[in-house]
């Protein structure tokens, strides 16, 4: 529950940059707020997925210690602002997001591409990243007892997605493309009312691990495979102790039976309303979920800007 205060603060700060065309500023605002709030939590956290290495990121770098230094030892994965361009443009789907798990339970994914497939609880054990697009869609249709023409696949709108798009179209299934934000897109597969059945495509590996933590709590399924593009990225995988060829099952991405996922919408999304500023307060909507208990909480909060003027640091 404490962790949602972290994503809320980050969302409040970064939302102040909505539509201003300044993606780095929006990202910095989220990162700074997250950093600040983490240190109010009684935990001994270590960033395992963050903003970069110590020499390239001033805050939330890999290896950085977070928290008050007492309490549980946790590994933390953050994407302070998932959708920096989204906030800069003021389009839909940006969120601040983090995942936490007991020390050693989050895959130390290097910052590179990952092929991903995700689906909701009905499709657990049914999807397989090694199988064809067609096989996966057929399996999901069967598991959900619907026609193939009614299966909706969400795919990131990139040139690299063209093969998947062709195959989905050839099969007659539906497609919902998105510009950015495959953490949210993956999570959407676990909520029936989004209308999304499967996520397929290539996005960031850090986002893959974070999404997997959420999907674990939601009892859906997620698989990934790292896609190193050159020798340097290949070496980076080995350095971080990750096999670049391995099919990464949900339990490889997030091991153990517990993980926490927290996210707050910055701009409007499928699951949550973006930050709203009123005269003296601001409202946020968040989701926080825990794999161990399976509890999923949607939290709408009102933040008094009179009592906590610093909540929006950069406004
Ligand atoms: C995706 C998307 C993210 O980065 O992971 C993407 O979900 C990586 O692909 O929201 P590109 O290099 O093609 O952008 C984001 O867009 C931003 O982190
Ligand atoms: Mg980011
Ligand atoms: Mg991101």
UniProtKB/TrEMBL annotation:
It holds the Pfam family FBPase_glpX. Coiled coil: none annotated. Pathway: Carbohydrate biosynthesis. GO terms for molecular function: fructose 1,6-bisphosphate 1-phosphatase activity. The keyword Hydrolase applies. It catalyses: beta-D-fructose 1,6-bisphosphate + H2O = beta-D-fructose 6-phosphate + phosphate. InterPro entries: FBPase_class-2/SBPase (IPR004464). Keywords: Carbohydrate metabolism, Hydrolase, Manganese, Metal-binding. Belongs to the FBPase class 2 family. PANTHER family: FRUCTOSE-1,6-BISPHOSPHATASE 1 CLASS 2-RELATED (PTHR30447:SF0), FRUCTOSE-1,6-BISPHOSPHATASE CLASS 2 (PTHR30447). This is Fructose-1,6-bisphosphatase. It comes from Jeotgalicoccus aerolatus.
